[in-house]
């Protein structure tokens, strides 16, 4: 499996944050950092010389970013590429099962939309592979990789991605399953304790299966299991508050897919504070259902 992080570049502070995250991810394991700048499609009516000057300026900034990355991670292969096309379409081409595409994002002033319509969120909503959404300001002194678990196929893929991250970084892994009891009916003083016990038992069973999956595939990784009562996005946000990364499946986890498509409902991406890796609906290499190898760019 190739260690590769693709960074969506546009010279902004948020892109710098994504590049810093990629450097930390690949440094020390001889990985590849591919910095990609997608320029808009060529305007046939635009002045040719002005267009060329714009490209030259963009290329200069891209090369400078690549040089900084190479100095910070001398053991890594750093590449810098400019592409013409629509950013969303071109970046989607880099989403592959065993690569990670890192996209920076800025907090918006309107709380209603914040990160929901960002490029990273849009990519993650449809991508069949890992997309990392990196907040512009990430606090230091973080530890652990947190992954949301719910027993679905995408959750299993997310667990393997998270375990691989933990293994490569030498970080502990935290498996989190959030569960909620049924709503109280009018006049009902409390929830049925038998039902609550059954739900909690089911939660522990789901976590046990995830833990066994980690043990079989990544025996060096120490995995902690947390069965927590509450809504998934609140539980995961609390659990990942100081984590190195939060890993989620893009389907099967309550609310996440909806948020990535721009819903105004509460969810992880709407209040992003932790680097978050969203694993696409299909992760064939990581999920063991395909042995196809990715093409090199």
Q: What percentage of amino acids are in beta strands?
A: 15-25%
Could you tell me how far the N terminus lies from the C terminus, measured between alpha carbons in angstroms?
15 Å
Strand order of the largest sheet: 3-2-1-4-5-10-9-6-7-8
Share of helix among residues? 25-40%
SSE topology string: EHEHEHEHEEHEHEHEHE
Number of strands: 10
Using the alpha-carbon principal axes, give the shape: elongated
Mean pLDDT: 79
Structure classification:
alpha/beta
Low-confidence parts: 109-116, 252-266, 283-297
Largest sheet: 10 strands, mixed
What's the number of helices? Answer: 8
Radius of gyration: 20 Å
Task: Report on the architecture of this protein.
The chain has 297 residues and is α/β, with parallel strands linked by helices. The protein has helices spanning 13-26, 48-72, 87-92, 119-126, 153-169, 193-217, 232-239, 256-260, and strands spanning 4-8, 32-39, 77-84, 100-105, 130-135, 145-148, 173-179, 223-229, 245-249, 276-279. Strands 3-2-1-4-5-10-9-6-7-8 form a 10-stranded mixed beta sheet, with helices on both faces. Helix 1 (13-26) links the parallel strand 1 (4-8) and strand 2. The two termini are 15 Å apart.
Short description:
With 297 residues, this protein is α/β, with parallel strands linked by helices. The protein has helices spanning 13-26, 48-72, 87-92, 119-126, 153-169, 193-217, 232-239, 256-260, and strands at 4-8, 32-39, 77-84, 100-105, 130-135, 145-148, 173-179, 223-229, 245-249, 276-279.
């Amino acid at each position: 499996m190739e260690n590769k992080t693709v960074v969506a570049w546009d010279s902004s502070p948020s892109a710098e944050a994504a590049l810093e995250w990629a450097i930390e991810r690949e440094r020390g394991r001889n990985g590849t950092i591919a910095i990609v700048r997608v320029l808009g499609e060529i305007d046939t009516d635009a002045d040719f010389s002005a267009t060329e000057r714009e490209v030259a300026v963009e290329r200069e900034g891209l090369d400078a970013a690549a040089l900084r990355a190479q100095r910070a991670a001398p053991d890594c292969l750093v590449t810098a590429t400019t592409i013409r096309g629509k950013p969303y379409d071109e970046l989607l081409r880099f989403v592959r099962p065993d690569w990670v595409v890192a996209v920076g994002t800025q907090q918006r002033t309107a709380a209603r939309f914040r990160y929901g319509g960002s490029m990273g969120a849009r990519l993650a909503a449809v991508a069949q592979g890992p997309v990392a959404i990196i907040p512009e300001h990430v606090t230091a002194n973080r530890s652990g990789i947190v992954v949301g678990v719910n027993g679905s196929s995408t959750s299993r893929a997310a667990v393997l991605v998270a375990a691989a991250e933990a293994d490569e970084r030498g970080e502990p892994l935290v498996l989190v399953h959030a569960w909620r009891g049924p709503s109280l009916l009018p006049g009902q003083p409390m929830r049925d304790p038998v039902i609550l016990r059954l739900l909690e038992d089911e939660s522990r069973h789901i976590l046990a299966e995830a833990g066994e999956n980690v043990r079989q595939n990544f025996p060096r990784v120490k995995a902690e299991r947390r069965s927590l009562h509450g809504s998934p996005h609140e539980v995961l946000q609390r659990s990942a508050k100081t984590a190195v990364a939060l890993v989620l499946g893009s389907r099967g986890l309550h609310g996440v897919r909806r948020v990535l498509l721009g819903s105004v409902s509460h969810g992880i991406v709407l209040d992003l504070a932790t680097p978050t890796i969203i694993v696409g609906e299909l992760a064939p290499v990581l999920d063991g259902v395909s042995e196809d190898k990715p093409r090199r760019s």
